[in-house]
What does this fold into?
Amino acid sequence: MKPAAFEYRRATAVEDAVDQLTELGDEAKLLAGGQSLVPMMNFRLVRPSALVDVAGIPDLQYLEPHDGRGLKIGALTPHRWVEEMEDPELLEGFSVLKRAARWVGHYPIRTLGTFGGSIAHGDPSAEWCMLAALLNAEVVAVGPGGERVVLASDFFHGFFMTALEPDEMIVEVRFPQPAPNAALQEFARRAGDYAIVAAAVTLDIDDGKCRSARVVLGGVADIPLRVSEAEQVLEGAEVGREAFEEAGREAAKVIDPPSDVQGTAEYRRDLSAVMVRRALEEAAGDAG
Ligand SMILES: Cc1cc2nc3c(=O)[nH]c(=O)nc-3n(C[C@H](O)[C@H](O)[C@H](O)COP(=O)(O)OP(=O)(O)OC[C@H]3O[C@@H](n4cnc5c(N)ncnc54)[C@H](O)[C@@H]3O)c2cc1C
It folds into this structure.
């Protein structure tokens, strides 16, 4: 199918994009990599009256150290750049992003799709949305009133719903703390598809025991879901398969996943237990 008719404009700077969004009204949308928006327009799931193309705005493609130990990613940075991250300083704390990038769609999607676009799109099983929730990311948005910073925990409101206003543009996503022992595992029936269920975890290990943990599931709720019950199972536990399986079982017990063409709620619960266990094993492996 083809999209409904729309006006097309280009923005040359962030302020220009925001001005145009304000002028065009709430039915206008930004166009970044187009890898989610264009298919949705072709299926007529969305019918924006106008698109403001931000792909040509300079200086929004970067992965750089942030505030000493953190990482900041420009909104227009393609997924592929994350996959190709080489800087040892960044990899030390954020290799989970590089490892997770291979799960994001196919190669052409990773070449065109952008980090900020994925966060703005707000799919609850998107890898960047899950890792933003897991690692306490900060989303930097610019609107007519200037810049504001929204914590990931306040950013995702529901399926494709976020804290962004219609006239705001994400310019940067910041990960304030390194996460050397983090992992993301997921399952999809076909390579390149969104995960049916994905699990992202961090572990803080001290002398063979888990000091603290964080567990986020994708594909089981309308936002990336933090599962504190599974985290509590891990806190103080001996690191190993027994605790990881127990955490997985606990996660499966407390979630209330949907049933759809991809799988029943029961199937998603079982898959959650396995994905949590696998992600924890990977994170523990990284912890040596
Ligand atoms: C076949 C297929 C498989 C895919 N599989 C996966 C997958 O497994 N995992 C995954 O995470 N993604 C997947 N994707 C989606 C892909 O990652 C997209 O690139 C991403 O979701 C959106 O980024 P984009 O730059 O293409 O944004 P666009 O498609 O251009 O825009 C998406 C939405 O975000 C808004 N937007 C874009 N940029 C900004 C900004 N800077 N500020 C404010 N709003 C903005 C747009 O207005 C629009 O509403 C898949 C896509 C396809 C077609």
The CA atoms of residues 202 and 214 lie 5 Å apart. The two ends are 51 Å apart (CA to CA).
